[in-house]
């Protein structure tokens, strides 16, 4: 059997696994006045403590002990799985919506020229003249093929 520990704000409620009517609670070797099955710690300061509950005396005595290391805070909120799932889903939908809006508005701006101060207006594309030939590389003429005859593909 296990203890049932419930935390709400700074209040910690511990339920003993024993089902008898009179239960003796001890916290850090100090016996407490509570004789009920539930032990409530108001304004818990998050300090670790050893808590035990026992019933009976002599050989019929049964004792359950636990080490309580509960972190509490006054203004914390507990979220269930459904709330976390809803928050993540809403975040993804909003992100996807922004992505679609950015795509939609930027789709038509691709072909437009920018009107910045340093740019010159572009007219129709004009054909460029061929580059000036380099005198080191002359084109092959019909009568001079023997100079380049050794450059042909070779069979292996």
Automatic annotation (TrEMBL):
Annotated compartments: Cell membrane
InterPro entries reported for this sequence: CD3_esu/gsu/dsu, Ig-like_fold
Residue numbers spanned by region Disordered: 113-143
Major subcellular location class: membrane
Pfam family, one: Ig_5
A GO cellular component entry from the record: alpha-beta T cell receptor complex
Transmembrane residue ranges: 81-105
Lipid bilayer topology: Single-pass type I membrane protein
Annotated keywords: Cell membrane, Membrane, Signal, Transmembrane, Transmembrane helix
Biological process according to GO: cell surface receptor signaling pathway; positive thymic T cell selection
GO terms assigned for molecular function: transmembrane signaling receptor activity
Claim: Membrane is one of the keywords in the record: yes
Keyword flag Chaperone: no
Protein name as it appears in the record: T-cell surface glycoprotein CD3 epsilon chain
Organism: Buceros rhinoceros silvestris
